[in-house]
Write a structure and sequence with these properties.
33% of the residues lie in helices and 26% in strands. By secondary structure, the protein is of the alpha/beta class. It has 2 domains: 4-88 and 158-240, Rossmann fold, CATH 3.40.50; 257-465, P-loop containing nucleotide triphosphate hydrolases (Rossmann fold, 3-Layer(aba) Sandwich). Strands 6-7-8-3-9-10 form a 6-stranded mixed β-sheet, sandwiched between helices. A 5-stranded parallel β-sheet has the order 15-16-17-13-18, with helices on both faces. A hairpin with a 2-residue loop joins strand 9 (208-213) and strand 10.
Length: 467
C-alpha cells in the first residue's frame, strides 16, 4: 500500500458557542494520490482545507492533527501550520476575486518565488495567453481568473496541493483541461486534496472520494466504487442531480417578445467578441448563451440590458425603448441581471438584511414582508443568514440570496450570468427548477449564460453559441 504523505486525523471545528461545524473528519492522501471532497454548500468541505492550512476564520477553534510526511502537527497550532505554506502545502483558493490583488498585474502574482519562465509555462499549459500576464484581475473573466489561480499553484514545488473548487466557472473544455493539469501533478509524484461540486473532477482525478454533509463525512472510498455503488441516500441523490438526468421540457411559445436585438457587434481592441448578431427574446422562454471562457457571454448580456453599448447594432425592449436611454425606473427594474460573482453584487461590511431593506423605495409597498420569506424558503436560505455580512456566508448561500433579491422585482427579463456555477449539484437543480418554474408562471424571459453544456441541454429552448 502506498505511503500516506498527508494524514488528517479527527479534525473538528467549533464556533464561539461551541457548536460543531466539522465533526471528527479523518482521511489520508497517498503520495502521488488524490482525495476529493464533495458535498453541499456549507457542508464543511472548505473548512477542512482551511483547518489543514491554519486559515480558519477568527472565532473558530480547531481540534485534531495532521501527520505530514511522518511529522505530527496539532491543528490548533496555527503558527506551526504556517511553516508548511508554499514549500509543503500549496493552495488554489475558491474565490479568485478575493485571492488576487486588484492593484497588481497577473504575472507577478503567478510568479511568486518561481522563475518567470516557469510562470509563463504554467500559464501556457492552461491556455492563458502571454497578454493575460500584463492585465489586472478585474480585466479577466471569472473562468480566466480561476485558471490564473491554478497556474499560481503549478509554479510551486509543494508536494501537496489543496484545490478548493479548481474548476468553478470554467467551460467544459477548460474543466477537462484543468483536471488534466492537476493530474500532471499526480504524475510528478505530488498529492492533491480537491474540494469540488463537480463530479467530473472526482472521476478525472480518481483516487478516493469523501462525501460530506453538515460537517460529517457520510461515506468515503475509491471514486469508482462510491459512484457505481453509493451506500448513503444523500450520495445517491447527489449523483442523480447530474443535469444529464434532468427531465426535458418544451418552451411555451408565447408570441409576445420582451426584447429585439439587431446586428450587434462588440469588440475589445482588435478582437471581435461577436458580430452581426440578431436575436429575439420571448416571454416564457429560456435562451442560453454559451461558449468558452472570455468569448463575450457576459458582455452580450450586458449589451442586452443596456449596461454596455454595442459598437454596432441596436437593442429594443418590449415597448421599443432603447435601454441606453430609458427614463422609466419601473421599466428599468423589470430587466435584471444575476451576477456570476455574488460578492460583487453586495456591499461589503453591510448586513444583508439592511441591504434588502434598502430596496423599499423601489419595491411595491409591503413586498419585503410578503414576498421575501417564501422566496427564501424556496431557495433553501435560512432567514438567519440575512443577519450576516456578505463575507460571513458561503458563495453558494450568497448567490441564492442574490436570486431572491432580484425575484422581488418580478422581472420581464432576467440575464443570469453563470447563476449556478457556485452551487452544489442538489442546490443547482433546485435553483434551476425554480427559475424554470418562474419562467412558466410569470412569462419571464430567462437569458442563461453558462459554460456547462450539460446544463444548457437540460434547460434551454434556444442556444446562442459564441464559439
Amino acid at each position: 500500500m502506498m505511503r500516506a504523505i498527508l494524514r488528517v486525523c479527527d479534525l473538528s471545528v467549533r464556533d464561539q458557542k461551541g457548536t460543531l461545524l466539522v465533526e471528527a473528519v479523518s482521511f489520508a492522501i497517498p503520495q502521488a494520490g488524490a482525495v476529493v471532497l464533495i458535498g453541499e454548500t456549507g457542508s464543511g468541505k472548505s473548512l477542512v482545507a482551511q483547518a489543514v492550512l491554519g486559515l480558519v476564520p477568527e472565532g473558530l477553534s480547531v481540534q485534531g492533527r495532521i501527520e505530514f510526511d511522518g511529522r505530527t502537527v496539532e491543528l490548533s497550532d496555527r503558527a506551526a501550520l504556517r511553516q508548511y505554506w508554499a514549500n509543503h502545502l500549496a493552495l488554489v483558493p475558491q474565490e479568485p476575486r478575493a485571492a488576487l490583488d486588484p492593484t497588481m498585474r497577473v504575472l507577478p502574482q503567478i510568479t511568486g518565488l518561481a522563475k518567470q519562465a516557469h510562470a509563463h509555462q504554467a500559464m501556457t499549459s492552461l491556455s492563458l495567453r502571454a497578454s493575460v500576464g500584463r492585465q489586472y484581475p478585474f480585466m479577466l473573466s471569472g473562468g480566466m481568473a480561476q485558471r490564473v489561480l491554478v497556474a499560481g499553484a503549478l509554479t510551486t514545488q509543494a508536494p501537496v496541493v489543496i484545490a478548493d473548487e479548481p474548476t468553478k466557472g470554467l467551460d467544459d473544455d477548460r474543466v477537462e483541461e484543468t483536471v488534466s493539469r492537476i493530474r500532471q501533478l499526480l504524475d510528478h509524484g505530488r498529492a492533491v486534496l480537491a474540494i469540488t461540486h463537480d463530479i467530473r473532477v472526482a472521476r478525472g482525478l480518481g483516487g478516493h472520494i469523501g462525501v460530506m454533509r453538515a460537517g460529517r463525512m457520510l461515506e468515503q472510498g475509491p471514486v469508482e466504487e462510491v459512484i457505481l455503488a453509493p451506500r448513503h441516500a444523500y450520495t445517491r441523490a447527489w449523483l442523480d442531480a447530474d443535469p444529464d438526468r434532468w427531465p426535458r421540457r418544451t418552451a411555451q411559445r408565447i408570441a409576445e417578445p420582451v426584447l429585439h436585438a439587431q446586428k450587434l457587434t462588440y469588440a475589445v481592441g482588435d478582437r471581435r467578441l461577436f458580430q452581426d448578431l440578431s436575436l429575439t427574446l420571448l416571454r416564457g422562454s429560456i435562451t442560453a448563451i454559451t461558449g468558452p471562457s472570455g468569448c463575450g457571454k457576459t458582455m452580450l448580456g450586458n449589451v442586452l440590458l443596456g449596461l454596455a453599448r454595442p459598437h454596432a447594432g441596436t437593442v429594443r425592449w418590449c415597448d421599443g425603448t432603447d435601454p441606453h436611454r430609458v427614463r422609466r425606473p419601473a421599466l428599468r427594474a423589470r430587466f435584471q441581471k444575476l451576477h456570476q460573482d455574488p460578492a460583487s453584487a453586495f456591499m461589503p461590511g453591510r448586513v444583508l438584511r439592511r441591504q434588502l431593506e434598502d430596496l423599499k423605495p423601489v419595491l411595491p409597498f409591503g413586498c419585503l414582508a410578503r414576498d421575501l420569506p417564501p422566496l427564501l424558503d424556496r431557495l433553501a436560505v435560512q432567514p438567519s443568514l440575512l443577519e450576516r455580512r456578505p463575507d460571513e456566508v458561503s458563495g453558494g448561500e450568497l448567490q441564492r440570496i442574490a436570486i431572491a433579491r432580484i425575484l422581488l422585482f418580478k422581472p420581464y427579463c432576467l440575464v443570469a450570468d453563470e447563476p449556478t456555477s457556485r452551487l452544489d449539484p442538489l442546490v443547482q437543480r433546485e435553483v434551476t427548477e425554480l427559475l424554470r418554474t418562474l419562467v412558466d408562471e410569470q412569462d419571464m424571459s430567462l437569458v442563461l449564460t453558462s459554460h456547462d453544456k450539460r446544463l444548457v441541454r437540460a434547460v434551454a429552448h434556444d442556444v446562442i453559441d459564441l464559439q
